[in-house]
Amino acid sequence: MVDNRYATALVIGSVLSLLATVYLSVAVGTQHWYQYSCVPAKREGSNASVLREEFINGEFDEKTYRDTLFRLNGTLGLWWRCIRVPSESHWFKQPDPKMETQCVSFTLPQQFNPKYKQSGNHDGEEDLLRTYLWRCQVLLPLVSLALVFLGGLVGVCACLCRSFTPTLGVGVLHLLAGLCTLGTVCCFLAGVDLYSPLPEGVEGSLGWSLYLALISFPLQMMAAALFLWAARSHRKNYTRMTAYRVA
């Protein structure tokens, strides 16, 4: 028989875990981790159509797509890079064209491409720190989601078996998932800061996707704390009741 306090802790922990999973999944799948904005004069002086064509269909090169992000108010995510360009008009050139967002996804091989200290110089020295930071920011959120999913499976099995013991393992899995989520954000921010300084007239800011990942971290940690507390308290109570019956 499970005490109402422990059952309430499990329910609240499960809800927090679900919210954290949704937030982190949305963050991983969206492109608004970091956004760039440039002054209008710099944006208007660039050939948007040429930059767009090179951004979408050109060869993958970090310096090339970063420069395009700088000049066309781009956004950067874990799996996406996007730019803001005027919508195409086949009949006439609009004086104030409507802006649209065009995105290109990173392929799996591109995610594991090495980074160089001089971006664009593929014959130069590899920047190992940025290379592994980028790879960690791609892998860690997937590990975090996998740990939460595994914790959910363990919890379901525990309910079917009517056992409270696996709750401790569920709490540990959520604790590790929270650390992976925090590591994702730290690796992303460190990688952005280690890249070459922003050009003059370009400003960078954090996007809402990154804030979703940040929110999911404390939710996972609170869920882990509730699971661990419930498992520990129930075990102490069970040991005390067993000793009382023996006595």
Automatic annotation (TrEMBL):
<protein>
    <submittedName>
        <fullName>Claudin domain containing 1b</fullName>
    </submittedName>
</protein>
<dbReference type="InterPro" id="IPR042356">
    <property type="entry name" value="CLDN1"/>
</dbReference>
<dbReference type="InterPro" id="IPR004031">
    <property type="entry name" value="PMP22/EMP/MP20/Claudin"/>
</dbReference>
<dbReference type="Pfam" id="PF13903">
    <property type="entry name" value="Claudin_2"/>
</dbReference>
<feature type="transmembrane region" description="Helical">
    <location>
        <begin position="138"/>
        <end position="161"/>
    </location>
</feature>
<keyword id="KW-0812">Transmembrane</keyword>
<feature type="transmembrane region" description="Helical">
    <location>
        <begin position="173"/>
        <end position="196"/>
    </location>
</feature>
<keyword id="KW-1133">Transmembrane helix</keyword>
<feature type="transmembrane region" description="Helical">
    <location>
        <begin position="7"/>
        <end position="26"/>
    </location>
</feature>
<dbReference type="GO" id="GO:0016020">
    <property type="term" value="C:membrane"/>
</dbReference>
<keyword id="KW-0472">Membrane</keyword>
<feature type="transmembrane region" description="Helical">
    <location>
        <begin position="208"/>
        <end position="231"/>
    </location>
</feature>
